[in-house]
Amino acid sequence: SAPYGFALLSGLLALYAAIQLERARMVHDAPFFTGMPVDGFLSVLIAVWAFFGSIFKALLVGILALFTFSVKNSGEIIFVYGLFFITLLIGLVAARRLIARYGPIAARWAYFRLTILLGVVYSTGMYLFTKLGFVDSFRVRETVSAIFGNPNTFDKAVNALDNARRTYDHGINVIVEKFFATIPGGAAIGALFQILFSSYVSQGFVISALVFVIASTGARQAD
User: Fold this and answer.
1) Phi/psi at 109 (nearest 5 deg)?
2) Residue 209: CB partners within 8 Å, gap ≥ 6?
């Protein structure tokens, strides 16, 4: 189905980005942290670490992308999908401005520096949609049975993970209602807390990986 296809594509694109960048980052960082030149055993260690790190990030992005498009309610789809692509567009505009100023290498900002920022943008949108009633981000579907019911199909496993994510967000909401509602300025502080600590911030990993691939490809073609 479409969500699985999008998750697979996102994971592959993230792997493509990570393989390019993780080793380059580690080659740059290693002398700073170790004081050693990157050769011999250290070079091999960096290559191996970067390879497995790239696979891990690709899997993470694939799973997170699956959550993005796991919406079952057709009334929510337009808001969730629209917010995702608006956030992606914001990331692309930012990346293009950086590339225009600093050259194609600035596309790396999308992968290393825009992740949290784009995640917060997405989380802010989901927070507003939830408060306005457009999206029910705390609806948990058979959480206990899904997580502990020994899922025997891929769909059940995905639903279990999605329910765990929703349970986490529901817990954040409960914390806000219990601890922030009674203090001066608690509403604003609670809103900020929900936005910053929501699971939706993690979508920045998906969006930033896509921004890097699109922006860097466009920069190379422009050259």
Assistant:
1) -60, -35
2) 10, 13, 14, 17, 18, 57, 61, 111
